[in-house]
Amino acid sequence: xxxxxxxxxxxxxxxxxxxxxxxxxxxxxxxxxxxxxxxxxxxxxxxxxxxxxxxxxxxxxxxxxxxxxxxxxxxxxxxxxxxxxxxxxxxxxxxxxxxxxxxxxxxxxxxxxxxxxxxxxxxxxxxxxxxxxxxxxxxxxxxxxxxxxxxxxxxxxxxxxxxxxxxxxxxxxxxxxxxxxxxxxxxxxxxxxxxxxxx
Length: 199
Fold this sequence. Notes:
The protein is α/β, with parallel strands linked by helices and about 200 residues long.
């Protein structure tokens, strides 16, 4: 047996089942820092990242989305699986389902896979309500709908809710970077503006 075979032999349970291997991992860390108030904590933390945050009811959501998009002229892309009711109050001419041309979009409206209260992070697993990864990275504006039941208290709980074999995008506020002078520039690696509707 060579060194490579020895190392590879130590990896995993040998079952070849990713779910079984993940479940078998030893976890000696604190799994949850918060039991209550996770929605409020998420709203506070995501706002700290310079996201625009709204708390709305399900009944208020269509009007809130329409009002947000009214401030941004142009067309907005949506994934195929976005519920029609979410954008019911938006002029259909301003929406494009699964657009091929992302450069011409004013923004995009999606759902999320899970959100993390502790870190103020939104995780996209690029399911039906989120669309392909480029849809959320190319346009300059991203409006994401997060329902209360999608908010996990901490990272371990969030990871348990996700299919770790899918592509995951973690969003903590608008895309930003700083140069050597520490001048912050937004919109370099993704949307310059992140707007979050917490339902």
